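Throughout our pipeline, every protein is held as a single compact record rather than as scattered files. Such a record has a labelled line for the sequence and another for the backbone structure tokens. The remainder of this section carries one protein's record, kept here as part of the documentation:
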Amino acid sequence: MMLNTVDPIEPIKRPVGRPRKRPTKLHADKAYDSQPLREELRRRSIMPRIARRGVESSERLGRHRRVVERTISWLNRYRRLRIRYERRADIHLAFLHIGCALICWNFINH
């Protein structure tokens, strides 16, 4: 599923030069530790930063993971996003956009 998530990333717009197609690095925890996945990411010009099972501690990834986990916890404040009641993906995506907009609004106003 990792590659299915990485592949549809849209180009990152920059003020000067060509838009970047993909991120340069990918941080992940030990659950994604596999050599085929690392090779596929390198083939896509993405440097994998994945903790190795039994070798590395995933603590060094903590500062990067915190951003993702914090954002997910903010989205979990909205019950409709924590427990998916909608069967249609477009309705769920609309509620996800509303949740993100509310998070941004609260962040700006505080």
About this structure: The chain has a mean pLDDT of 82. The chain is about 50% helix and 5% strand. The first strand starts at residue 25 and ends at 28. The beta strands are 25-28, 47-50.
